[in-house]
Write a structure and sequence with these properties.
alpha+beta, Hemagglutinin Ectodomain, Chain B, Nucleotide Exchange Factor Grpe, Chain A, domain 2, three-stranded antiparallel sheet, 2 helices
């Protein structure tokens, strides 16, 4: 094995291994006697340390900028989400304003014909049910349907000879919404199994 001026050559590393940088691959620089002294010439530090420190500063700066961008994005998202929630609340409340107006109108005519008042209140109830349906919460008050634990809440079990077992006999309180989006289940009585 020939010996180079730098000393004996080491054995080659195994295939696929990460190799450390070799000194003979460095870019040749100007001769040391012609180079201008750098800012660290008095302390004796070398230029690669300055390059690593500069690269570290650049990486830290990029990291801090990314962190600040993420924080700004999080704050903007929170503001937008709060604004959307307020907008949805206002839209839902506005949908119920005609219902309230009609209830006040019915109360103002309370001294009139009681039959007309009952019809007016029934119309207002239908209007409120329609508003809930438009918002995505349809009313469920069906009898004779099979009991569904996702849509019904059993408050009583009765012996009903004309009804199939485990079917809804009476709806005490209607339910609103579907199984995935439900405001409340219907409170029902169910026919007893024999």
């Amino acid at each position: 094995m020939p010996i180079s001026p730098r000393g004996p050559e080491p054995d080659p590393p195994p295939e696929g291994a990460v190799q450390p940088p070799r000194g003979d691959l460095e870019q040749p620089g100007p001769p040391t006697d012609q180079a201008e002294p750098g800012p660290d010439a008095a302390t004796g530090t070398t230029a690669p340390d300055d390059a690593y420190a500069a690269a570290l500063r650049v990486a830290e700066d990029g990291w801090r900028r990314a962190l600040a961008d993420l924080d700004n994005l999080r704050k903007r998202h929170t503001r937008e989400l709060t604004g959307q929630a307020a907008s949805e609340r206002a839209r839902t409340a506005a949908a119920f304003l005609p219902v309230i107006d009609n209830l006040e109108l019915a109360l103002s005519h309370a001294a009139a014909d009681p039959g007309a008042i009952v019809e007016g209140v029934r119309a207002v109830r239908d209007q409120a049910v329609n508003v809930l349906e438009r918002l995505g919460y349809p009313r469920h008050a069906e009898t004779g349907v099979p009991f569904d634990p996702a849509r019904h809440e059993v408050v009583g079990v009765v012996q009903e000879p004309d009804a199939d077992p485990n079917t809804v006999v009476q709806v005490l309180r209607p339910g609103y919404g579907d199984a995935e989006r439900q405001l409340r289940p219907a409170a029902v009585t169910v026919a007893k199994r024999e």
